[in-house]
Amino acid sequence: MANPSRFSASDAALEGLNLVGRRWRVVLGWAVFNLLALIMVVVIAAVLSTIATALAGGSNVANSPAEMAAGVFGLVCALQAQAVIATGVFRLELRPDQPAFLHLRLGGDEFRLLLIWLICITGAWAVLWAGMVAGAVSGPGRWAIEALAAVLLVYLLLRFALVSPSSFTHRRIDFPQAWRLSRGRVLALLGMTALSLSLIGLVMVAVLVALVAVAFVIGGFSGLAGVFGGSEGLQAHPAVFLLAFAVEIILTPVLWMLAMAPLAAAYRAFTEGEAAA
Q1: Alpha carbon distances (Å) from 220 to 139, 202, 225, 244
Q2: 48: containing domain
Q3: Which of 12, 68, 213, 220 is 20 to 30 A from 21, alpha carbon to alpha carbon?
Q4: Whether the Cβ atoms of residue 95 and residue 109 lie closer than 8 Å to each other
Q5: From CA 58, how far away is CA 67, in angstroms rounded?
Q6: Does residue 221 lie in a domain region?
């Protein structure tokens, strides 16, 4: 874990990997939850699509308001399911003694995290959109302005990187504290984030290479359809398709641990360091 007296970007970035090693049984439990949540989202989407079709009198509803609303609601449900897992990581790191089944709950903490994600996505879109608009009217300086907007976006994301663990700890959305905690620590957070993303990328590449190797052993080049062929892969090589699907279900909570545990470690280090000072 990160030392509260001296923050180490590398230690914080590796906190997720250490957490996976310590709590691998929790990972398997979260994988089961992830599967059940996926089934629930698919059922909800099917029900909403049926309702939208009925409201449209059985006509084509691909672009109807009801169908679009159903799609948005299904997406929000999928994000909420992932927010439950992501919040579970914070609960493991920051409130390990809080009663919860497999450290998972559905309550204010999870809804706040979903709202934070939506606010950050909207804010990032607004910054990029403003950069593209400013670039479009600036003529020759377009690329410089768009690059500046991208740099500004990265800076803001780093300044507000700790809003999720901060809001989890204080049980309210707390952007000001996240901004205060990150003051003078942007480069440290940048290093931690870069290392975390590199670790996530390495894990994903390693898993993909292993899947491709297994698929090739089972079915040769045609067996790769089970990994990359989507629904067609299920018909061509069902065993490979199901294996890839199972790995994806298990990999999801692993990736959330790798992504969220460093944020919790950084938040804990910064707040305990301030308390010690």
Answers
A1: 53, 25, 10, 16
A2: 15-272
A3: 213
A4: no
A5: 12
A6: yes
